[in-house]
Amino acid sequence: MIDLIQKLPKAELHLHIEGSLEPELMFRLARKNNVEIPYDSVEDVRAAYNFNNLQSFLDIYYAGANVLLTQDDFYDLTWEYILKCVEDNVIHTEIFFDPQTHTERGVAFEAIITGIKEALADAKAKYGITSCIIMCFLRHLSQEAAFETLEQAMAFKEDIIGVGLDSSELGNPPSKFKEVFQKAKEAGFKLVAHAGEEADFSYIYEALDLLNINRIDHGVQSIKSPELMQRLKDEQMPLTVCPNSNIELRVFDNYKEHNIKALLDYGLNISVNSDDPAYFKGYVNQNFINLYENLPITEEDIITLVKNSFRSAFISDELKEDYLAKVDAVLQ
Ligand code: HPA
Ligand code: ZN
User: Fold this and answer.
1) Are 64 and 58 in contact (CB under 8 A)?
2) What's the pLDDT tens digit per position in 208-262?
3) What percent of the chain is modeled with pLDDT above 90?
4) How confident is the model at residue 153 (pLDDT cuts 50, 70, 90)?
């Protein structure tokens, strides 16, 4: 099975590029940019990655992102992630970035997007990996700040396929961002939102009904509402589930408690993603391997999860068919 996981081409739909910052690169950039980090060694950094909930992770994640200052830094960050895609046979990726984390520190929007974009162009040229960029609003900040960010993004509309919503979920419901999502939709952006990761399923209803999203990020709390489960199934609304993340942030006590198999068996459109792989002990394949080693996941489940990742991607129907055919070719 591990061999099959490795061999199958995959898409990744839920990956925060800042969450792919490995401690080695964090140290290198801290030294180069003269940024203080509260760690003495790479081992020290890894030892600090011990979280009790989403917020305890976010505090460390935002501190780590302080080392990212220049266009080259964003290029290097993205390129290192692409090398992991090559290792894991991820042939299409849709990456999130959090502009506000950087523009608040004086980094230019253009430097961020250009660094990411150039690495993704090189990924296409060198490895044939296709990609899109999704800009996330930080939900602990105001809707007004999100509007300003959307305004800045308009100059780079060609480079950004969609907008999303991340950061501290509890107390920051989707309804807080209703108008800015409406405006983003009118501007032609695809819409996604983190919902039902830590907060209850009412946040998923809000994301669907008030934000009109095309995909739900996480969404694992939907299982507590039979009515919502039926709706998600009927609409085949994609849920980008991130198993390692849910374990590391204690959304579930341990892998055996994770509900991904139940969601899948019910008929929901589920994919497997790494979220913040440098912080959550592994990239996409490691997420699949952990599922396989801890849950009664079958070969058919793995194939469904992988095919869902392509079906739910923001790519043309033609490219979807191409990629699904690639999956079938491996299965032959
Ligand atoms: N949830 C919310 N915000 C985030 C996450 C997450 O899992 N990862 C990075 N930002
Ligand atoms: Zn996430």
Assistant:
1) no
2) 999 999 999 999 999 999 999 999 999 999 999 999 999 999 999 999 999 999 9
3) 100
4) very high
Q: What's the 192 CA to ligand 1 centre distance in angstroms? A: 13
**pLDDT digits over 181-209, tens only?**
999 999 999 999 999 999 999 999 999 99
Strands, sheet with 190-195, edge to edge from the N-terminal-most edge strand: 10-16, 90-97, 130-138, 162-166, 190-195, 215-218, 238-241, 269-272
End-to-end CA distance of the chain: 15
Q: How far apart are CA 132 and CA 162, in angstroms?
A: 9
Main-chain phi, psi angles of 312, to 5 degrees: -95, 0
Ligand approaching nearest to the C-alpha of 55: 1
Q: What is the pLDDT of residues 69-107, one digit of tens each?
A: 999 999 999 999 999 999 999 999 999 999 999 999 999
* CA 196 – CA 240 distance, rounded (Å): 11
Q: Parse the chain into domains and list their residue ranges.
A: 2-331
Residue 19 CB–ligand 1 contact under 6 Å: yes
Cα separation, 10 vs 109, in Å, equals: 30
Secondary structure (3-state) at 103: helix
CA neighbours within 13 Å on the CB side: how many for 302?
A: 27
Mutate to test the pocket of ligand 1, among 96, 275, 287 (most ligand atoms within 8 A of CB): 275
Q: Which atom of ligand 1 is nearest to the CA of 218?
A: 7
Please give the distance, rounded to the nearest whole angstrom, from the Cα atom of residue 331 to the centre of ligand 2: 30
The angle formed by the CA atoms of residues 221, 225 and 229, to the nearest 5 degrees, is 85
Active site residue ranges: 197
Would you say 257 and 250 are in contact if contact means Cβ atoms under 8 Å apart? no
Residue 324's pLDDT band, with cuts at 50, 70 and 90, is: very high
Specify the CATH class of 2-331 in words. alpha beta
Is 73 a pocket residue for ligand 1 (Cβ < 6 Å)? no
Distance 122 CA to ligand 2 centre (A): 25
Residue from 20, 54, 245, 249 whose mutation best tests the ligand 1 pocket (most atoms within 8 A of CB)? 54
Full-model pTM: 0.98
